[in-house]
């Protein structure tokens, strides 16, 4: 299938610019404009009644579509929020922060976690242990071994690491390595919509976080979390009135929570992102596109790109500068990462050629999306000559 047909508005607006930043901001498909406009129309039509008449059906179907992709048995174990940080801190607030709190993570988590974790660790009663992700082939053993060193309250780890694209494959073993007292949180932002993921065996054990800004192609302001059915005992301190929306009329000076994932909701938010995410997932369903097909397509583009590197470097970078090759692994997401001290300089040089990439410290990242083709890769290398 020619996926480019789904992105005509974005590609037309970009003109000659080659967008290889799909890991950061994925181009939006055409369907999201209609979805955004539909939200405005619904607000005009229904006013205050829009929450029940218009938004609730869209949210319900969006949950159902997400649940199908993740192989969740119950869509009601999904809740939405404007961003991942909000969801993470809501999980942290389930614990009594006056007592000892032990958190285990890695040194390669995105800032929505790492900044907040660093701030939390300023308290004497809160410790945040970080396992180095490199060398990558030893990460699994290091991480699982560290779990045996201490009783951890929270374990937080990315499925695909933002600064390298390297992907873990031991979520099930992680879940089996700790008791139910340990909260397991998996950041799936760089995996959801890119890497085929089944939570069928994990749905009653892990909290899974992801959102629309990247491979779900629906922009800012819409993230979600899957919540284990066994999480009904958690009472987040950081809570909003949506978390007991269905029982507000019976409110009697007590803080109650919904029995499902809604217990982790906040307060009034902008639901237009849910409209956009719903439109993307609905489009995939109508086009018979699943994440496995997307992954296979992107993998073929990445292989073509690496093959081109065999004969032509990128401002001195070659195949051996790719971090997954240096680390000896074939497990990585939908962006390729060069490790180089010249990352920022090379990014600027590429931008001068109308090629969009991005960098994080010494990592230069090339993201591949459904709107790419081998012709785009050919154009990239032609501009370097």
- Which ranges are low-confidence, i.e. pLDDT below 50, for 5 or more consecutive residues? none
Shape: globular
Largest sheet: 7 strands, mixed
> SSE order in H/E notation?
HEHHEHEHEHEHEEEHHHEHEEEH
CATH class of the largest domain: Alpha Beta
Any idea what the radius of gyration is?
A: 21 Å
Overall domain count: 2
Ends apart, CA distance between termini: 31 Å
**Helix coverage percent of residues?**
25-40%
CATH architecture annotation name of the largest domain: 3-Layer(aba) Sandwich
Report the mean per-residue pLDDT as an integer: 96
- Order of strands side by side in the largest beta sheet? 2-8-7-6-5-3-4
Number of strands: 12
Instruction: Give the number of helices.
Output: 12
Structural class: alpha/beta
Protein name: Aminotransferase class V-fold PLP-dependent enzyme
Keywords: Aminotransferase, Pyridoxal phosphate, Transferase
GO molecular function, one term: transaminase activity
Organism: Reichenbachiella ulvae
